[in-house]
Write a structure and sequence with these properties.
CATH superfamily: Chondroitin AC/alginate lyase
Shape: globular
Helix content: 55-70%
Strand order of the largest sheet: 1-2
Number of strands: 2
CATH class: Mainly Alpha
Distance between the termini: 40 Å
Strand content: under 5%
Largest sheet: 2 strands, antiparallel
Number of helices: 16
Number of domains: 1
Radius of gyration: 20 Å
């Protein structure tokens, strides 16, 4: 079965018709003013920019040599992966960090640093090479997710700092659009058994890029993948394709929900309420994960192996909870858990997720 079924495509086209005349926009958290007003008295130098990556996207998988579960880390392959992708991850971190610094101190020089490095990569047509393998495709959509969600915060900042650099902004946005087109092709027409967290992250990259570029077609692609994801959540809140990860099944369910929550928030901001049903797929998935945070026995039972829960110890891995409590009603225990973890940061969701997706920011 293809990723986008005929029924889903028709539903998506109907959504596009209904909203075609309305400009796309991000949730309100993306247009909050900086938390402080910069004095500009201190010296600020842009970080050294990583060289644009212009070669083929051909990288080792960190699970290279693993069995079909793809759950056993290969240390040597992991080192090769990190080295091969170093320029790309450096760009992601730099852009998101400088954007977050601007959101905190209001110093527009951070914006200039972001615009400069993004424009350099855009002029080099970076990241547009052939995606030779699955890991190459993954790196492209992960980078696009980071870059577009950071750029949105500068686009929609109340003081509109990008207006001072229109040529750089235009070139960057055109480049992000090209990366989005390639991401559509990279993840199109997959059989359902191969539609998993990677497709969901691709959808999030397309959703954030859709708003950056004001392209309804990218929004529609993202929503089609989202609806496919919802159809994959079973009655108990499990994703069959993530259960195949055996000891990492719980971890990968948690990883899969991160972009899905972000997509749901963006959909709602654009008049598409995907949570109207009392027990929709996203709710079932999130509820199962939340109930398992203190005891993952249900995942152990379903996956057939004791679960690796190391991911819970890294707060950023639970960043989606900020958005979750904006979509659904959370009890006091969950609110207290989130409060202890704040501020929640996740590069590929735009950086400071507490600022961007918290319930207070979205009101």
């Amino acid at each position: 079965m293809a990723l986008i079924t005929r029924a889903l495509l028709l539903l998506t086209l109907a959504t596009a018709t209904a909203h075609a005349a309305t400009p796309l926009r991000p949730p309100a958290g993306f247009s909050l003013p900086p938390q402080a007003t910069a004095t500009l008295k201190t010296k600020l130098t842009c970080p050294d920019a990583p060289a644009p990556f212009t070669g083929p996207l051909d990288f080792h998988s960190k699970y290279e040599g693993s069995d079909s579960a793809r759950a056993t880390l290969n240390p040597e392959a992991d080192r090769a992966f990190r080295e091969g992708t170093r320029q790309i991850t450096a760009l992601e971190k730099q852009v998101v960090q400088e954007t977050t610094r601007y959101q905190r101190d209001g110093d527009v020089r951070h914006v200039a640093c972001v615009a400069e490095v993004m424009n350099t990569w855009a002029q080099a047509d970076a990241l547009t090479g052939e995606a030779v393998n699955h890991t190459g495709k993954s790196m492209r959509k992960w980078a696009l997710a980071s870059l577009s969600s950071a750029w949105l915060q500068l686009q929609y900042a109340p003081t509109q700092p990008l207006k001072a650099m229109p040529q750089q902004a235009r070139a960057t946005e055109q480049w992000l659009g090209r990366l989005a087109d390639l991401t559509v092709k990279d993840w199109a027409d997959l059989p359902l058994k191969k539609v998993n967290n990677h497709s969901y992250w691709a959808a999030w990259a397309l959703m954030s890029s859709a708003v950056v570029t004001q392209r309804q077609d990218l929004f529609d692609h993202a929503m089609a993948i989202y609806r496919t994801a919802m159809s994959q959540v079973d009655g108990e809140g499990f994703l069959e394709n993530e259960l195949r990860r055996r000891q990492r099944a719980f971890s990968y369910h948690n990883y899969a929900i991160q972009p899905l929550v972000a997509i749901a928030l963006f959909a709602r901001a654009n008049g598409v309420d995907v949570t109207r049903r009392k027990d929709d797929g996203l709710y079932r998935l999130g509820r199962q994960i939340i109930q398992s945070l203190d005891n993952p026995q249900t995942f152990t039972t379903r996956a057939g192996e004791q679960q690796d829960i190391d991911f819970i110890g890294k707060p950023g891995n639970l960043a989606w909870l900020e958005g979750w409590c904006s979509l659904y009603t959370c009890d006091s225990a969950l609110h207290q858990r989130i409060e202890r973890l704040r501020p929640l940061q996740y590069t590929r969701l735009g950086g400071d997720v507490t600022r961007l997706f918290t319930e207070t920011a979205l009101k």
